[in-house]
Amino acid sequence: MKLKFSSIFLLVAVVALSAFTNPKKPVTYTADASKSTITWVGKKVTGSHNGTIDLKSGSLNVDGKKVIGGTFTIDMNSIKDADGSAKLEGHLKADDFFGVAKFPTSTFVITKVAGSGTSLVVSGNLTIKGITKPLSFPATVAVNGDGTVSALAGKITVDRTKYDIRYGSKSFFDSIGDKAIDDNFELSVKLVAKK
């Protein structure tokens, strides 16, 4: 009986130790740029503009069913106006706005994911025009049975003036009147990533 008990105890100890010495590593999911979308809205006193911008690449780090990190690169040359205005698209790409000739990409690096279940708060560092600032926003994230991760962030508010984009800002030009453009623009992101 003592021998049997000792054998069981030894087996349990070996299993417990192996669980600590061989922890599961987080799994990296690669963003599927063809199935992911980013839309933008910019507002001004007399109306608004909206359009799209493409995700160039990205990845999510997943531990079990929890997203713990990620990195994303946005193709700034892909800015499109929903109304098809080549003039507006050209202005957004110019130095007054995103300066895409010098800064062809922007990045977002996740530093923290808080919350439980699928409703989370994602925090990270957003880099636009070579300037990096912290940014947090609510998101819905799910690890799906088909081996994909889906994420949805319906309203990410970005203050463009923090990235030295001052064109048409009342914060810098008092006499601009009804030609003022809001300092904040909004992004909506739908992300699909797979192993």
Automatic annotation (TrEMBL):
Keywords: Signal. InterPro entries: Lipid/polyisoprenoid-bd_YceI, TTHA0802/YceI-like_sf. Pfam families: YceI. Residues 1-21 form the signal peptide. The keyword Signal applies. Coiled coil: none annotated. Residues 28-194 form the Lipid/polyisoprenoid-binding YceI-like domain. It comes from the Bacteria. This is YceI family protein.
